[in-house]
Amino acid sequence: MIEIRLTDANQWKAFIIPYKFALDKLTIMINHINQEAAALYDYNPIEHIKSRLKSPESILNKLERKGLPVTFQSVTNDLFDIVGIRIICSFVSDIYDLYELLRKRQDLKIVECKDYIRNPKPNGYQSLHLIVQIPVTLASETKQVYAEIQLRTMGMDFWASLEHKIFYKYNRDIPDRLKRELRDAADMTVKLDEKMKAISDEIGRIESPYAQLTNRAQLQT
Ligand code: 0O2
To answer: Three-state SS for 25?
Structure first.
């Protein structure tokens, strides 16, 4: 088993390349979904996307936190979020439509789905998390690479990014009063998302073209 040495730039470069290609492929795939919807239906299910490759320091921290050996084998087999894509949508319905579109694809496999929208974390955190596997073809072999896709509304993203800052400002120990404020803000985010959806449904013309394609009504039961 090869141990990770942060000082060895060549070792890192060779290790990270399939992850970089997986990130590129996923970014193109998601942009294409949005472009197709815009071109055919004049609809944008995605507001914007953010992506990142986990830094070596962050990988080492996570291995330590999970009590895993500091080896490339361990990163490959046990860490699923080296590639991270965050998809920000206007409406919760867009998130579930995108989930269905991704689920039906032949070029990607969803291996895990954690629904923190229907089941928010106790602190109020909401998002739909998917762990996916995507094939990446290199000169010598085709690798199945894991990636994490997080889908959220703009409101959920706003909440998560502020909570993340507060979490680190207080060294992972947020004071109780702020925890309560964050819970309140999370409840307000749910209400805002519902309100915006109701207003957009009333206007009518921005109904998602995928509502029928993905049989969303059935999915939500
Ligand atoms: P970063 O820097 O965002 O990558 P694991 O992923 O195995 O550590 P877990 O809890 O099973 O553990 O994963 P989960 O619940 O799918 O959450 C993983 C990621 O979701 C986190 O990545 C965050 O990006 C986000 N997340 C989860 N819970 C919260 C939360 O309470 N607040 C905020 N702001 N974000 C959250 P990392 O690895 O923590 O960091």
So the answer is: helix
DSSP state of 127: -
In angstroms, the CA 95 to CA 90 distance is 9
Pocket of ligand 1 contains residue 156 by CB under 6 Å: no
Amino acid code (one letter) for 62: K
Residue 203's pLDDT is what?
84
The SS3 assignment for 150 reads strand
Which atom of ligand 1 is found nearest the CA of 123? 31
Report the nearest-CA residue for atom 22 of ligand 1. Answer: 81
Query: Contact at 8 Å (CB) between 15 and 187?
Result: no
**What predicted TM-score, i.e. pTM, was given to this entire model?**
0.91
Nearest to 75 by CA among 20, 143, 129, 2: 2
Q: Whose CA is nearest to atom 17 of ligand 1?
A: 129
Residue whose C-alpha is closest to residue 21's, from 141, 152, 193, 168 = 141
Angstrom distance (rounded) from CA 99 to CA 143: 23
| Mean pLDDT value across residues 62-74 | 93
pLDDT at 205: 58
Tens of pLDDT along 122-180? 999 999 999 999 999 999 999 999 999 999 999 999 999 999 999 999 999 999 999 99
Residue 202 to residue 114: CA distance in whole angstroms: 31
